[in-house]
């Protein structure tokens, strides 16, 4: 997946105004199955697998014993006793090894990543493209659901999810069908203004929505509570890896908090690892930053000491040994009119 096919701004605007397609074949796909699969996964993931109906998915975390985030992922119940975990590409082997190390012998775990590809199709015209690909009378899956559809002699799994803030789907298929589906989507999407999109547009789109990126905003040194993602942690579950640590942090409060901010004036965009200051005191560090194509100013996220993390707080971002003013803003930074 390239950083860009044409230009980041062009691809970004295609998703915001029409439709864009991202190759997500690099994402990992793990399968867990058997009668004990759900019960065991509930001890490994933060969200509650028991709440999933067949063909439904949920955002969740895989944690280490310190409550740190190994990975954020989507878990789908694709059958009564079968689960698909769609994980981050750079974490696939690590996730598999961690799960395998904690797995009871009677719970099968397989890594199908090399045999399956995927695309994310995102934008306000996604419904039109879906009908062009699968038929006018075929209904899209509900939000956070996954459904199999026949396509040109093969089968494609369509999930109603995305990482851009726009309506969208993610399609999963066997690798041998990847080129066929990619080309069909581009051909059918031509009248809709479709564009192939790379990693650059993915980053600007997700950052406008304040969606965290694993490896930047999320890491084994950070936990879901300080990342502001406690909604996806079910502390009422009696047992999962990292639960006791998160329970203590929830009760005492985190020391730092992942906040979003916007730059107050034109200047170089904020980047990861830039220091954040309040009245000359270093209070945190930027984890993600860019120039927003939709908003036309610099935006970012970073971990800030809690006493300084309130919405509306004026801060300074140190960029190339100069301090530039910014303000902590409510998430998301981009809101559709």
Question: Would you spell out the secondary-structure blueprint of this structure?
Answer:
Elements: H1 8-17, E1 19-23, E2 28-33, H2 37-44, E3 56-63, E4 69-79, E5 82-87, H3 92-102, E6 109-111, E7 116-122, H4 126-134, E8 146-151, E9 154-159, E10 168-174, H5 178-189, E11 194-197, H6 199-208, H7 243-252, E12 256-263, E13 275-278, E14 281-291, E15 298-305, E16 314-319, E17 322-329
Parallel strand pairs: 1-11
Antiparallel strand pairs: 1-7, 2-5, 2-6, 3-4, 4-5, 7-10, 8-9, 9-10, 12-15, 12-17, 13-14, 13-16, 14-15, 16-17
Describe the structure.
The chain is built from seven helices and 17 strands. It folds into two domains: 1-252, Probable tRNA modification gtpase trme, domain 1 (Gyrase A, domain 2), CATH 3.30.1360; 255-337, Elongation Factor Tu (Ef-tu), domain 3 (Beta Barrel), CATH 2.40.30. Helix 1 packs across helix 6 (199-208). It has a six-stranded mixed β-sheet with strand order 8-9-10-7-1-11. The longest helix is centred in the middle third of the chain and has 12 residues, at 178-189. With 337 residues, it is an alpha+beta fold. Strand 9 and strand 10 (168-174) form a beta hairpin. It starts with 7 loop residues before the first helix and ends in an 8-residue tail after the last strand. The mean pLDDT is 97. It has helices at residues 8-17, 37-44, 92-102, 126-134, 178-189, 199-208, 243-252, and strands spanning 19-23, 28-33, 56-63, 69-79, 82-87, 109-111, 116-122, 146-151, 154-159, 168-174, 194-197, 256-263, 275-278, 281-291, 298-305, 314-319, 322-329. 43% of the residues are buried.
């Amino acid at each position: 997946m390239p950083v860009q096919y044409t230009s980041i701004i062009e691809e970004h605007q295609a998703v915001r105004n029409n439709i864009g397609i991202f190759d997500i074949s690099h994402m990992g796909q793990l399968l867990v199955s058997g009668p004990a699969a759900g019960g065991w996964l509930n001890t490994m993931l933060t969200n509650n697998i028991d709440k999933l109906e067949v063909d439904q998915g949920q955002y969740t975390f895989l944690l280490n014993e310190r409550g740190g985030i190994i990975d954020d992922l989507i878990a789908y119940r694709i059958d009564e006793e079968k689960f698909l975990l769609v994980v981050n590409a750079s974490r696939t082997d690590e996730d598999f090894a961690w799960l395998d190390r904690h797995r009871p012998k009677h719970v099968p775990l397989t890594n199908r990543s090399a045999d399956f590809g995927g695309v994310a199709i995102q934008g306000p015209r996604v419904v039109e493209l879906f009908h062009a690909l699968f038929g006018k009378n075929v209904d899209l899956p509900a939000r956070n659901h996954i459904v199999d559809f026949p396509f040109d002699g093969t089968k494609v799994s369509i999930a109603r999810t995305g990482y851009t803030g726009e309506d969208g789907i993610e399609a999963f298929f066997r690798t041998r069908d990847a080129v066929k589906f990619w080309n069909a989507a581009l051909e059918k999407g031509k009248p809709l203004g479709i564009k192939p999109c790379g990693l650059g547009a993915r980053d600007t789109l997700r950052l406008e929505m304040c969606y965290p990126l694993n490896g930047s905003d999320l890491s084994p040194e950070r936990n879901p509570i300080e990342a502001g993602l406690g909604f996806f942690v079910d502390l009422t579950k009696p047992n999962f890896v990292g639960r006791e640590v998160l329970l203590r942090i929830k009760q005492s409060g985190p020391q730092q908090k992942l906040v979003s901010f916007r730059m107050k004036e034109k200047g170089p965009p904020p980047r990861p690892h830039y220091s954040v200051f309040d009245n000359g005191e270093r209070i945190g560090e930027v984890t993600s930053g860019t120039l927003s194509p939709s908003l036309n100013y610099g935006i970012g996220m970073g971990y800030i000491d809690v006493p300084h993390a309130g919405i509306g707080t004026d801060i300074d971002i140190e960029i190339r040994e100069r301090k530039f003013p910014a303000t902590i803003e409510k998430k998301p930074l981009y809101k559709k009119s």
